[in-house]
Amino acid sequence: MITLPDLGNAIATRRKAMETRWPSAKDLLRLGETRVGCTPARAKHLLQRVEAAMRDTMKAVRSYSHHRPPFGEIGGRMLVEWEKGIAQSLRQE
Predict the structure, then answer these.
(1) pLDDT, tens digit, for every residue of 3-50?
(2) DSSP one-letter code for 23
(3) Could you give the CA distance from residue 90 to residue 4 in angstroms, rounded to a whole number?
(4) Among 2, 43, 80, 90, which is disulfide-ready with 38 (CB 3.0 to 4.6 Å)?
């Protein structure tokens, strides 16, 4: 049997898990260097490739959303979040 406090904790845990927290580009570069063993230049290159792939995918999502209007709302929300992720995680400014 689930008690009210348990349910409240489960809801709070679920909400927290659904929040998007993008790592910083600095953290991703450090991860590439320390855990993967990349040189700084290679880690930076990999982040650039990830951004290029995301941009290509974003174009496809825009096209799909245009041709399938029911998907437009969710597609638009996805694009907003992906833009945030690119700005926060893939740009080393």
Answers:
(1) 555 555 665 666 665 566 778 899 999 999 998 899 999 999 999 999
(2) P
(3) 42
(4) 43
Element (H, E) at 16: helix 4-18
Runs of H (alpha helix) within 19-87: 25-34, 40-67, 72-85
Q: Which of 42, 37, 53 is nearest to 85 (CA)?
A: 53
CA pair distance 84, 18, nearest whole angstrom: 15
Ramachandran assignment for 37, one of left (phi > 0), alpha (psi -120 to 50 degrees), beta (any other): left
User: What residue type is 6 in one-letter code?
Assistant: D
pTM given for the model: 0.70
* Residue 93 identity (one-letter amino acid): E
